[in-house]
């Protein structure tokens, strides 16, 4: 698996979308290795807790897919979709729920799975919203933590990587709906979004 992903980095992903990136921040192999570590950590912390992992769409879809396959425990997965960015590269601060959970989380051990925590506005809103639904516990697992950009203090319990204060894409993260399919994470050239905004 790792070997295949490394090859995907080296051979397939040249030109095209990749030309819009100024640098690769995290290779596919590095992401995969860290996601497995996070999965093992969850596995140790949630024995006999039957956790419910809540993925925040759309950005978290590759992360949660890889993460749950690294946790050897009975668990369930649900999704919420929220919108705070629209087509821009900075948060509007107004969070809208576009799709809510399919079932109740009352009494459940919930892990909120995010692609990236940037200003913290989305997570702050979601955390408070889910707390009102009386879960037995509520923790947050984010692949990337862009700490320097924080506007709201939020607690992230499981962090994949710290992220510099730049706009990044790939492995679920998008700009105007694109780049989610890159198996690695890179920094988007500012020219790409400056000319559009
Ligand atoms: P926050 O509310 O500013 O913390 O932003 C949360 C959401 O904004 C994330 O779940 C992402 O979908 C999106 N986002 C924040 N930073 C980036 C980035 O660098 N690239 C792509 N999406 C981002």
What's the helix and strand layout?
Blueprint: H1 2-12, E1 21-26, H2 28-45, E2 52-57, H3 61-68, E3 76-83, E4 96-99, E5 109-117, H4 121-131, E6 137-145, E7 158-162, E8 168-169, E9 185-188, H5 190-194
Parallel strand pairs: 2-3, 2-5, 5-6, 6-7
Antiparallel strand pairs: 1-9, 3-4, 8-9
Give a verbal description of the structure.
The protein has 197 residues and is an alpha/beta fold. Helix content is 27%, strand content 27%. The protein has five helices and nine strands, in the order H-E-H-E-H-E-E-E-H-E-E-E-E-H. It has helices at 2-12, 28-45, 61-68, 121-131, 190-194; strands spanning 21-26, 52-57, 76-83, 96-99, 109-117, 137-145, 158-162, 168-169, 185-188. The strands form two sheets. A six-stranded mixed sheet has the order 4-3-2-5-6-7, sandwiched between helices. Strands 1-9-8 form a three-stranded antiparallel sheet. The mean pLDDT is 92. The site of inosinic acid has 19 residues, from strand 5, helix 4 and strand 8.
Instruction: Look at the helices and sheets and give the structural class.
Output: alpha/beta
Rg from alpha-carbon coordinates: 17 Å
Report how far apart the termini are.
Answer: 38 Å
Biggest sheet statistics? 6 strands, mixed
Q: Cofactors and ligands present?
A: inosinic acid
Low-confidence stretches: none
List keywords for this structure.
alpha/beta; 5 helices; globular; 197 residues; binds inosinic acid; 6-stranded mixed sheet
């Amino acid at each position: 698996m790792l070997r295949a992903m490394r090859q995907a980095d080296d051979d397939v992903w040249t030109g095209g979308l990749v030309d819009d990136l100024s640098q690769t921040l995290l290779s596919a192999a590095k992401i995969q290795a860290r996601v497995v570590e996070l999965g093992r950590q969850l596995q140790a912390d949630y024995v006999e807790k039957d956790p419910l992992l809540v993925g925040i769409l759309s950005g978290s879809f590759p992360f949660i897919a890889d993460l749950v396959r690294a946790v050897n425990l009975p668990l369930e997965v649900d999704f919420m979709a929220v919108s705070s960015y629209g087509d821009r590269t900075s948060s509007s601060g107004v969070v809208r729920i576009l799709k809510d959970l399919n079932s109740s989380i009352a009494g459940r051990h919930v892990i909120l799975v995010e692609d990236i925590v940037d200003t913290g506005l989305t997570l702050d809103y979601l955390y408070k919203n889910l707390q009102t639904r009386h879960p037995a516990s509520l923790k947050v697992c984010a692949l990337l933590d862009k700490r320097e950009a924080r506007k709201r203090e939020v607690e992230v319990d499981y962090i994949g990587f710290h992220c510099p204060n730049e706009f990044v894409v790939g492995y679920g993260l998008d700009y105007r709906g694109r780049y989610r399919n890159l198996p690695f994470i890179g920094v988007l050239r500012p020219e790409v979004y400056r000319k559009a905004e």
